[in-house]
Specification:
The protein has helices at 48-55, 78-88, 104-114, 119-132, 148-160, 178-194, 206-209, 234-248; strands spanning 6-15, 22-32, 37-41, 63-68, 71-72, 89-92, 166-170, 199-202, 214-219, 222-228. It has 256 residues and is of the alpha/beta class. The strands form two sheets. It has a six-stranded mixed sheet, sandwiched between helices. It contains eight helices and ten strands. Bound molecules: adenosine-5'-triphosphate and magnesium ion.
Length: 256
């Protein structure tokens, strides 16, 4: 049997106490191979963020196991978790999470400096990411001086800075207009194609999801469907996504 690079095995997550339990994740299992570009879709409250937070070790599982390159991260001690995240994970959030008192460039650099990269090396890497992601011309501006799309591309550069094994993105296009969303999805596609980044993205937006190669659909904390893009054109894939969403009557059906 081929073993996945990341193996999620029968995980469960409950919130609350006896008598008032919410089953946010209900026996979810799947595997992620290196270099995959995946989306997790589902209606509000279906458990998307919870699932991402369990994989990123921000939240702890109630049951089940997650193996990350053969290391069981659900049994890891707290003091090792911060190190694990720093070494292996990159994050992109809906609200960018940039530091307002630092420039676009410094926001990327700080991720490298905090990981003890030498200054010259850090600057070289930062400039190369800025050029690749189209934010080189705004590198000396502050977050409040640039567009939402540019902020999010800066957040992607920061997430990629330390060559993480896995990038986790929760609704990265949630605050962007359709043009910026498209540019961001092209950026993530480029990071996946050219840098072989493994990306796991939560979205309720079919258009954003159509850029990925595989989609898990969650409902009531369970996986109820899965789609692979294969060699299909993105528009064909988008139609398939709409079909699943209408079949399940969930998700965002706004057509762009
Ligand atoms: N910290 C918490 N305490 C209690 N219940 C929680 C907590 N976080 C999430 N839940 C519950 O778990 C379920 C799944 O929530 P989750 O945030 O994962 O949904 P989601 O799919 O990300 O939704 P959205 O699309 O609105 O972001 C919901 O019923 C939610 O109310
Ligand atoms: Mg969420």
């Amino acid at each position: 049997m081929k073993e996945g690079w990341i193996r999620i095995s029968d995980i469960e997550k409950y919130y609350g106490r006896k008598g008032n339990l919410t089953k946010a994740i209900d026996r979810v299992s799947f595997e992620v191979e290196r270099g995959e570009f995946m989306a997790i879709m589902g209606p509000s409250g279906s458990g998307k963020t919870t699932l991402l937070n369990l994989i990123s070790t921000i939240d702890s599982t109630s049951a089940g196991h997650i193996w990350f390159k053969n290391q069981d991260i659900t049994v890891m001690k707290n003091k090792d978790l911060a190190e694990f995240r720093k070494k292996n994970l990159g994050f992109v959030f809906q609200n960018y999470n940039l530091l307002d008192t630092l420039t676009i460039e410094e926001n990327i650099l700080i991720a490298l400096i905090m990981n003890e990269t030498k200054k010259r090396e850090a600057i070289k890497r930062t400039v190369s990411l800025e050029k690749m992601l189209g934010i080189y011309n705004v590198r000396n501006k502050y977050p409040y001086e640039v567009s939402g799309g540019q902020k999010q591309r800066c957040a992607c550069a920061r997430a990629m800075a330390n060559n993480p094994s896995l990038i986790l993105a929760d609704e990265p296009t949630g605050a962007l207009d359709s043009h910026s969303s498209q540019m961001l999805m092209e950026t993530l596609t480029q990071m996946n194609d050219e840098l072989n980044a493994t990306i796991l993205m939560v979205t309720h937006d079919a258009f954003s999801a159509s850029y990925t190669k595989r989609i898990l659909f969650l409902k009531d904390g369970k996986i109820f469907h899965q789609l692979y893009r294969g060699n299909k054109d993105r528009r064909v894939f988008l139609n398939e996504i709409y079909n699943v969403l209408s079949m399940s009557e969930v998700g965002d059906k706004n057509v762009r």
